[in-house]
């Protein structure tokens, strides 16, 4: 981690840079923890590493007693290196390796299986080592669109994750595990939805309730997943989510015995993060005005599907250009951030702050044309601390296994080719 003393950077950080607002992060994390304490004290908050895997952030979560939810061997390794013990890791995802699955089960990570090969490997381990008392959860594939029309992010298409209960696949896999001596003690229900509606989570809990009672399961954990929405303004939402889940399950689950696991990502990290950018150039082509910035969709919206709230501070108050196309620095024609209508006419050096960009931006961090931006932490008094310097050529060479001689490159000084 790269860090520095807090600095008064009144005009904003050097751009491009992400800025995490410490107070906003604290508010959202604490609010979710309190919603769990109030409605399901025997619960686990497990932060979704994929949503934003910035080491500073993972360490922040760990310090607050939050677990790590990981979906790959690399994420598992990252969580371990950052100090999460195996028993505070939720190990999910469709592509676990046999070696890590065996070690996670041996060391007590809360593990939800997602494929028949994982079922086979868990069964194999339980047969080899009956003394281990292997305990697993299974991810459930359920029909979100059928229960909450318009909510599925894949529309009418089926989700590809987990085991289908309706076609008997879930029961067949439970039977295979049980026969090998594995205890099936968890269900994992994660789905992503289009809106913040608490009904999505009640539907999810309803499906779990049906499975638990039909199959007579005694669960150690019910993992409802992530996919929650979070807003600084809506102070009730987290409570509504957890109380709705609790009331739906009250007939079939004893909350003292069964832990509720949640895997929030975007709901706690999207809103606290801004991306600060600057206008590099302005040009008129035909009737269009293009404003070229030092950021890109690659950093702002790697999935190319959002409209992002933003603030502009422009030198001029003129509105001589009713439409301005805000574009990224890359060479992709479609690296257009948005069309500004009736905004002050932008010029070189004007600043733009994009808001609510903490989820799925830094973790998609790309080496396309430029390397990932710096990250600052903004404290309550407005001062900034650098928590990740901007990646550079040296970092790029290192992570591509390339070593070179003593030469270095710095723009504006003599250059020497690396070999
Ligand atoms: C299994 C699982 N858990 C948690 C999350 C986190 O979701 P979000 O960042 O929307 O909270 C995801 C994201 O898709 C996921 O797939």
From TrEMBL:
Cofactor: pyridoxal 5'-phosphate
Residue ranges occupied by any Orn/DAP/Arg decarboxylase 2 N-terminal domain in the UniProt entry: 31-269
Alphabetical keyword list: Pyridoxal phosphate
InterPro entries: Ala_racemase/Decarboxylase_C, De-COase2_C, De-COase2_N, Orn/DAP/Arg_de-COase, PLP-binding_barrel
Pfam families: Orn_Arg_deC_N (PF02784), Orn_DAP_Arg_deC (PF00278)
Chain ranges of the Orn/DAP/Arg decarboxylase 2 C-terminal domain: 275-358
UniProt cross-references to PANTHER family, sorted A to Z: DIAMINOPIMELATE DECARBOXYLASE (PTHR43727), GROUP IV DECARBOXYLASE (PTHR43727:SF3)
Family classification: Belongs to the Orn/Lys/Arg decarboxylase class-II family.
Designated name of the protein: Diaminopimelate decarboxylase
């Amino acid at each position: 981690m790269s860090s520095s003393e807090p600095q008064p950077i009144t005009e904003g950080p050097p751009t491009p840079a992400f800025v995490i607002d410490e107070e906003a992060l604290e508010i959202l994390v604490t609010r979710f923890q309190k919603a769990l304490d109030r409605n399901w004290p025997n619960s686990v908050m497990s932060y979704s590493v994929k949503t934003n895997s910035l080491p500073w952030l993972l360490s922040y979560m760990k310090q607050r007693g939050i677990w790590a939810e990981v979906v790959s061997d690399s994420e598992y390794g990252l969580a371990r290196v950052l100090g999460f013990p195996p028993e505070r890791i939720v190990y999910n995802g469709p592509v676990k390796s046999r070696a890590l699955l065996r070690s996670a089960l041996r060391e007590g990570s809360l593990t939800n299986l997602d494929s028949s090969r994982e079922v086979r490997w868990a069964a194999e381990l339980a047969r080899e080592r009956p003394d281990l008392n292997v305990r697993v959860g299974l991810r459930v594939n359920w029909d979100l669109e059928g229960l909450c029309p318009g909510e599925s992010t894949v529309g009418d298409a089926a989700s590809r994750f987990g085991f289908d209960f309706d076609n008997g696949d879930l029961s067949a896999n439970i039977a295979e595990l049980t026969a090998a001596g594995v205890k099936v003690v968890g269900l994992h229900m994660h789905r992503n939805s289009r809106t913040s509606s608490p009904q999505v989570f009640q539907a999810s809990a309803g499906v779990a309730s049906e499975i638990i009672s039909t199959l007579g399961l005694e669960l150690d954990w019910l993992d409802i997943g992530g996919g929650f929405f979070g807003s600084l303004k809506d102070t009730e939402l987290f409570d509504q989510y957890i109380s709705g889940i609790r009331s739906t399950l009250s007939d079939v689950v004893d909350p003292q015995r069964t832990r509720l696991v949640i895997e929030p990502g975007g709901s706690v990290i999207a809103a606290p993060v801004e991306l600060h950018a600057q206008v590099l150039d302005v040009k008129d082509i035909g009737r269009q005005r293009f404003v070229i910035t030092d950021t890109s969709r690659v950093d702002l919206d790697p999935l190319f599907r959002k409209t992002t709230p933003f603030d502009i501070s422009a030198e001029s108050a003129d509105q001589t250009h009713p439409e301005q196309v805000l574009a990224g620095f890359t060479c992709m024609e479609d690296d257009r951030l948005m069309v500004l209508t009736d905004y002050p006419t932008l010029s070189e050096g004007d600043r733009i702050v994009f808001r609510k960009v903490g989820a799925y931006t830094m973790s998609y961090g790309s080496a396309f044309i430029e390397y990932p931006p710096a990250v600052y932490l903004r404290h309550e008094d407005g001062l900034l601390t650098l928590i990740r310097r901007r990646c550079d050529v040296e970092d790029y060479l290192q992570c591509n296994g390339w070593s070179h001689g003593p030469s270095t490159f710095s723009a504006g000084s003599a250059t020497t080719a690396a070999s």
